[in-house]
Amino acid sequence: MRCSMTRSEALSEDKRSTRDAILDAAERVVEREGARRLTIDAVVRESGFSKGGVLYNFASKQALVEGMIERMVRSVEAEMEGAFRSAEERGEPVLPALIRAVIGHRKHNSRVSMALLAAAAENPELIDPVRDCVTEMRQAIAERSRDPDLARIAFLAADGLHFADILGLDFLTPDERARVEGRLVDLVSETSS
Fold first, then answer.
1. pTM
2. Which candidate, 131, 110, 123, places its Cα nearest to that of 30?
3. Do 120 and 178 belong to one domain?
4. For the segment 8-57, what is each residue's pLDDT rounded down to a tens digit?
5. Residue 46: which of 69, 23, 65 has the closest Cα?
6. DSSP 71-91
7. Are 89 and 111 in contact (CB under 8 A)?
8. Which residues bind DNA (predicted)?
């Protein structure tokens, strides 16, 4: 374990902290007011940083949205890697752990996802990193699954639940939702054993 940082590493860490604080503020704006209200000025007000400080880190609204998407992709990748590694270390099937991770991540990030999709509607190439991440994730899962088609079905079902959340289609009660999610995990667990 390293206990000390070089000056350049400390500066890099400070910059990352500043960028994350700005992105946190941007997400709060998006959650509260929607993607259309995301502006540099709104992020300045929310973050408490100067306009110059925000612009130094994100030169435009598009750069800010790109930063939000990049951070979301990194978060998903980290959660999936963690679930995969944890399941393997415990000697458990990987697919159920990954499905639980996907369901959990999407529950906690629906409002930001909705806003980022809205922003990406204005500029469709912004969603490319998400598309690439999902493609890689599904390919890796299919390769590790005894039943790749069931793995795809499970992830499509998880996507359906996520998009229902994003679009406000509350067609399941909380109890029904929990049972559906549990059954989805059970389905992939049955073929993993």
1. 0.74
2. 110
3. yes
4. 444 455 566 899 999 999 988 988 887 788 899 999 999 999 999 999 99
5. 23
6. HHHHHHHHHHHHHHHHHHHHT
7. no
8. 39-58
Residues 51 and 78 in one domain: no
Per-residue tokens: 65: 């949205």
Cβ atoms of 69 and 125 within 8 Å: the answer is no
Which H/E stretch holds residue 102? Answer: helix 94-108
- Residues 181, 127 share a domain: yes
CATH number of the domain within which 44 lies: 1.10.10
54 and 72 in a common domain: no
Q: Do 124 and 186 share a domain, yes or no?
A: yes
pLDDT for position 18: 92
Could you tell me how many residues make up the chain? 193
Apex 98 CA angle, 191 and 147, nearest 5: 30
Do 158 and 130 share a structural domain?
A: yes
Tell me how far CA of residue 8 lies from CA of 11, 21, 189, in angstroms: 5, 20, 47
Kindly report, residue by residue over 108-144, the tens digit of the pLDDT.
Answer: 666 567 666 666 777 788 888 888 888 888 887 778 7
Rounded CA gap, 7 and 74, in Å? 25
DSSP assignments along 22-35, one per residue: HHHHHHHHHHHH-G
| Tokens representing residue 21 in the block | 């604080």
Q: What is the pLDDT of residue 1?
A: 33
Q: Which domain holds residue 125?
A: 68-192
Q: Give CA separation, 163 vs 13, 113, 151, 159, 192, in Å.
A: 35, 9, 18, 6, 26
